[in-house]
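lol ok so funny story. i was supposed to be doing the assay writeup but got distracted and ended up predicting the structure for this chain instead. priorities right. anyway since i did it might as well share w the group, maybe its usefull for someone
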Amino acid sequence: MTDDAEDHAAPWRTVARGRSFTYLLPARDEDLAKFGFSRDPMQRMRALHVRWFEFFDLERGVLVEFDRVRDARALEASLKHMHCVEATWAPLVIRSAAGGRTEWFRGVSARAAEAMVAHATENGFILHANLRVWLHDHLLAHADTLHDTTLHAWQMIEYLRHNGEATSAGHRARTLRTALDAYVASGFDLAARLDGQVLDWYRDGH
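and the output, tada:
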């Protein structure tokens, strides 16, 4: 199939088309970075590390956004080839179940970021050169539901806690706190978005 034919393929060709990203995720406390491809970079970071917003250096993270998967894959492959001699082991804290043990590189963050910026600029692709800004905009799309979803989650935690289900309540509480911590790390003022009871509970735990 030619490129033009692919561009006008039937709507069911969703695997080849649709918004996709090549990402650079530098670690905050080590001179390590991960390259990769994802349809949903935020979900990818969540899968790699529970406290992803602390483990990764969001300000130095880079995304290049594409309309076609093959373009994102091509940039990913180029970055890996460019830095193949710097490949290294993943940090032990990265979840193996997420498939995150590969594609880590040492000492390449600045050069890889420059290459991604140049690629996006020269080819007219969308560049996100600060992941904290991108994450804020991404989370903003869901912020209108934050009040109700967190209130429901907190009520369930309280129900479990008062009915002898401390383990389940503790697990849900950690999940909710982590989700709210991500909003804070992305620059949100939770006081304007949470129910007062939920806000007090969250503040008491910090």
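The chain is about 50% helix and 15% strand. The chain has a mean pLDDT of 90.
back to the writeup now i swear
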